[in-house]
Amino acid sequence: MSMAKKAASGGTKNGMVVVADQQQGHKNCSSYAFQMPLHYPRYKKADYETMPEWHVDCLLREYGLPVSGDLESKRKFAMGAFLWPDQY
User: Which residue range or ranges hold the DUF7722 domain (predicted)?
Assistant: First the structure.
C-alpha cells in the first residue's frame, strides 16, 4: 500500500498523520509528538498572577515548556515566556 493510501486510511492524530504509528504497530493515543499550537497565548500579567496551577501547567505543556517547580516559579516562567517586556 502506498504512503498516501496509508495516510488516507490512517486518519490524523492532533493534526498529524498517523502513518508512523501504524508502521510501528501502535494503536493507542498515548504516544506524544510536540506540535506548536496555532495561536500565541493572549493573557495579561494579571491573568497569569491569578491563574490556577493546573491551567499554568496545561499552558506550559501545550507549548512544550518545562512544568516543574512551585506555582510562583511556573507563573514567572510563563510570564517571561509569553509576555512582551513592556507588559510585565
Answer: 40-85
**5-56 per-position pLDDT tens digit:** 444 444 444 444 444 444 444 444 345 566 677 788 889 999 999 999 999 9
Structure confidence at residue 37 (pLDDT): 73
> Are 44 and 37 contacting, i.e. CB atoms less than 8 angstroms apart?
no
Start-to-end CA distance of the chain, whole Å, equals 54
Which 3-state string (H, E, C) describes 4-55? HHHHHHHCEECCEECHHHHHHCCCCCCCCCCCCCCCCCCCCHHHHHHCCHHH
Q: Which helix (H) or strand (E) holds 65?
A: none
Q: Which residues pair with 8 in a beta bridge?
A: none
- pTM (2 d.p.): 0.58
